[in-house]
Amino acid sequence: MKKYTVIGFCVEQAGPLALLQDAGRFGVRRLGVTQGGPADLYGWAWANHLAGNPWGAPALEVTFGGLTLVAERELTIAVAGADLGATLDGAELPLWQRVTCKEGQRLRFTAPRNGLRAYLAVAGGFVAEPVLGSVACVVREGLGGFDGQGSKLAEGDRLSVGEASFAGASISEAPQEARFDYRAPARLSLLPGAQVGEFTGQSLFQAFNAAWRVDDRADRMGVRLTGPRLRCRIESLISEGIGLGAVQVPPDGQPIALLNDRQTIGGYPRLGALTPLAASRLAQCLPGQEVQLVAASREGCLAEHRRFLASVATPSVSAYHPP
C-alpha cells in the first residue's frame, strides 16, 4: 500500500464491467494463476503516461461503458483507449489528454462509439492491496481489484488514489497520430509458432490472406475469429504453456486468440502468437469487426515494441505511430 492515500471517486453506477488493472501478475503461472493486466496495453499505458504516472500504475479498465463516478476531491485524470462517450458533468470529456476533475463532478461513460475498452488513469494512481504481487483484477480467479477478491466495481464502492506527482509527466496530450481509429480494419502482427508448419499449405494461405471477423464469443480470456476452416495435421498435443496472444486452432478450424485472462496451458496446435500490441488492438474490436493476420518477424516486432515503450516513457523520443 502507498503511505498516502485518499478517496478519489465514489461509484454511483457500476456498469457491466469496470476492473482495476496494473501491468499484470507475473511469475505465478507455475501455480496456474494467469497474467491479468490491461487487455489494451497501449491505451492503458497512454492514460497513465498522460496522468503523469510511472509504468505499472493501476488504472481503471472500463468495458462497454455504463459507469458513473463522482469525484470526492479535485483530481487530475486522463482517459485513453476507446471512445465510450465519456462526459464530465454532461460535457464531452476530451480523450487522450490530461484533464482536471473537480470535487463533486460526475464522470460518466455511456456506450461504445469507437472501440470497446477505455482506460481511466488518475494522477497518483488508484490504490489497492496487492495479491501475489499485483492488483490486476481477474474475476474468474477471484484475485486483485479494489477488494483483493477479483470483484468488478459495484455501486457504492469508494476508490482510493495515491499522492499525485508530475515528476514523470512529459506531455499533457497525445499527438493525433498516436491515437487509434478502432473502427478501421485491424492488421494484427503474428509471430509464427512451433506448429505453423503442420498446417496445410492452403490453410496457411487462408490464415494470412483471408479476412477474419471477430465472433461474439469474446472476453478477456480470448477472442474467437470466424472465417475459412484451417486444417492441421496434428490431431492432439501434450498441453504446454500458453503466452499472451497465442493463436490456437481447435478441431473446428476457427482460430482463438488468447488474451490476458487466458488459461495457463493448452493442447491445441498454434499458428503462433500475436504481439502484445496486436493483442491490444484485437481487444478493442467489436463483434463482427474485420481483422487480418499478418506474419511478422521477431526483429520487426521487437523494434516496434521498443518504440512504443519509449513513447510512453521519455519526452525525448517521438511518439509511437500505430500501423
**What is the count of β-strands?**
20
Tally of contiguous helical segments: 4
Gyration radius over CA:
20 Å
> Which outline best applies?
globular
User: What number of structural domains do the residues give?
Assistant: 2
The low-pLDDT segments are 314-321
Distance between the termini: 38 Å
Content-based structural category: alpha+beta
* Residue-averaged pLDDT: 93
Helix-strand pattern, N to C?
A: EEHEEEEEEEEEEHEEEEEEEHEH
Portion in helices? 10-25%
Strand order of the largest sheet: 12-19-16-17-14-13-20
Main β-sheet description: 7 strands, mixed, barrel
Strand content: 25-35%
Report what the structure shows:
It is a single chain. With 323 residues, this protein is of the alpha+beta class. The chain has two domains: 5-176, no CATH class; 186-311, Cyclophilin-like (Cyclophilin), CATH 2.40.100. It is 13% helix and 31% strand. It has four helices and 20 strands. It has helices spanning 41-51, 201-209, 276-282, 298-311, and strands at residues 5-13, 17-21, 59-63, 67-71, 75-83, 87-88, 91-92, 98-101, 106-109, 114-122, 158-162, 186-192, 212-218, 222-226, 240-241, 246-248, 256-258, 265-266, 270-274, 290-295. The chain has a seven-stranded mixed beta barrel. Strand 16 (246-248) and strand 17 form a beta hairpin. The longest helix is centred in the C-terminal third of the chain and has 14 residues, at 298-311. The chain starts with a strand and ends in a 12-residue tail after the last helix. Pfam families: CT_A_B (PF02626). InterPro entries: CT_A_B, Cyclophilin-like_dom_sf, PxpC. Residues 30-308 form the Carboxyltransferase domain.
